[in-house]
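Kindly inspect this one:
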Amino acid sequence: MATHNSVVVDFDERLGMEKSLRKFKRLCESYGVVREYRKRQDYKKPSVQKKEKLEAAVKRKAKNEIRTARPFRT
């Protein structure tokens, strides 16, 4: 089972509120808080998740093939 860690930012009077807020946002991004929130907002059936994952993989593969097939330009 996953452990739940809290994002904690100590407010430093010298740095100010703006820098502390930016630090908090950066930590939330690194912990994946927003991504996890959006993922849990809607329930998706496992079959739908599998289909979306497969479609994303096909799209990634096609994009990667286009990049590698392109001739080198200077």
Summary: The mean pLDDT is 86. The radius of gyration is 20 Å.
